[in-house]
UniProtKB/TrEMBL annotation:
Keywords: Membrane, Transmembrane, Transmembrane helix. It comes from Methanolobus mangrovi. Signal peptide: none annotated. This is DUF11 domain-containing protein. InterPro entries: Chlamydia_OmcB, DUF11_rpt, Ig-like_fold, OmcB-like_DUF11. Pfam families: DUF11. The keyword Membrane applies. The chain crosses the membrane at residues 394-412. Residues 143-237, 264-352 form the DUF11 domain.
Length: 420
């Protein structure tokens, strides 16, 4: 008699074995099965396979391989034979010559198979007329961020005008550009004229004005303004390292005694790479490093579609926007607010906050209002560990079930025979 526990273990092993076979089958993908005229090529990302010569009578053809326009390999194969070469990362490409036919220009029929490489990372593929000489390759955008001030010697209470520009001196368009303008210690944001929020792009050779604003000096000293930073990608979606602007030096001489509330807002996440349906835990830290208290401290958390807000401590959802509100906030006071997000959809996201507060500077009659924005680093949401199960065709699951049913029926039949 077969014990139920043993039967369950055997069935589970059969299912796991069949699913592992189905998962491994997707390790190699045929990108192309078709014809290429001699002189043309086939492009995969920055690689191009040129069909250089074909010999119908000898049933063979020769090929050259280029990476970013530079020759890296060449081979001659006969019909039915294959040649494999290294691709990006640990991937490989196998070219199989199916047939060679004559004509005005000889034509080869090939099969091109990509192995050990994520299909989602293939951003360019297809036949290129004229071969590698006419291929468009993924380039490198290069952002040069410049921060300037209209004057560098001022007194406490004076205003300076800050201008930030970004120029793309690279050879590819900068996409998904996110600029981050930090708060300046010992200065108040007095007025903003131009402000770049959200993602933008910078074409090759373009000079873009990122922000123009006025700062009010609140304390004597010599200060280097914090640099503006930017994260960006190229047209192929490849991410590049963050770049920073210069840091202009401003000398502030003693003037009227001003006081100010300097509220620092910091948002951190416990992880920036997650699987779909995972939770992300965030913390917003608010600290007053100024010398007077603030009122009406407000933080609006902008949660993009694809992420879901699952609540937090001291955070109230107002008109669909998670909001932190503090009626008053004292000198050197510090508070932390935690929240949870759910990664609902695959994609790349950022969490931004809109921050504001009021304070009395001890000189002006009206309250001073300070507003700022902050953006987290990119959050990458990948497919879940078991997402591929729902992407498989139904026969992948039916076959194991049929096998299990047959095994179970045979065991039951044999059990009845031995019983009697």
């Amino acid at each position: 008699m077969v014990r139920p526990t043993r039967f369950f273990v055997i069935s589970l092993c059969v299912v796991i074995f069949c699913l592992s076979l189905a998962g491994n089958a997707s390790a190699a993908v045929e990108l192309y099965n078709g014809t290429i005229t001699t002189g043309d090529g086939y492009q995969i990302n920055n690689f191009v396979i040129d069909a250089t010569d074909a010999f119908p009578s000898a049933e063979s053809a020769s090929f050259y391989v280029y990476n970013n326009g530079n020759e890296v390999d060449d081979f001659l194969i006969n019909e039915g034979d294959s040649y494999e070469f290294d691709f990006e990362d640990d991937g490989t490409i196998e070219v199989t010559l199916i047939s060679v036919s004559s004509g005005t220009l000889p034509v080869v029929r090939v099969s091109i198979v990509l192995s050990n490489y994520l299909l989602s990372d293939v951003y360019e593929s297809g036949v290129i007329d004229g071969g590698h000489k006419y291929a468009v390759f993924s380039g490198t955008p290069e952002l040069k961020i410049t921060k300037t001030v209209d004057k560098s010697d001022i007194s406490v209470g004076d205003l300076i005008r800050v201008t930030v520009t970004a120029e793309n001196i690279g050879d590819d368009k900068a996409t998904e550009v996110i600029f981050q303008e930090p708060q300046q210690a010992k200065f108040l944001l007095y007025e903003s004229f131009v402000s770049q929020t959200g993602q933008t792009s910078v074409d090759v050779g373009e000079l873009k004005t990122v922000s123009v604003y006025q700062l009010k000096a609140t304390e004597a000293g010599t200060y280097s303004l914090s640099p503006t930073t930017a994260s960006f990608s190229n047209t192929a979606g490849l991410d590049f390292p963050q770049v920073s602007s210069n840091s202009p030096v401003v000398i502030v001489e003693a003037g009227e005694d001003l006081v100010n509330a300097n509220i620092e807002f910091t948002t951190t996440l416990d992880k920036y790479t997650v699987s779909r349906n995972d939770d992300i835990r965030g913390t917003i830290k608010i600290k007053n490093t100024g010398d007077t208290s603030a009122t009406g401290v407000t933080v609006n958390i902008q949660v993009p579609e694809g992420l879901e807000f699952n609540g937090g401590s001291g955070i109230e959802t107002i008109s669909g926007v998670p909001t932190i509100y503090l009626e008053s906030f004292g000198v050197q006071q510090e508070k932390e607010f935690s929240f949870t997000l759910k990664a609902a959809e695959v994609g790349t996201y950022t969490i931004s906050t809109e921050n504001s507060y009021l304070f009395n500077n001890g000189v002006d009659a009206q309250l001073q209002q300070v507003s700022s924005d902050s953006v987290t680093s990119k959050i990458l949401v990948a497919k879940g560990k078991y997402d591929y199960l729902f992407e498989q065709p139904i026969y992948v699951y039916l076959i194991p079930l049929v096998i299990i049913g047959a095994v179970a029926g045979w065991i039951f039949h044999r059990h009845k025979q031995y019983k009697f």
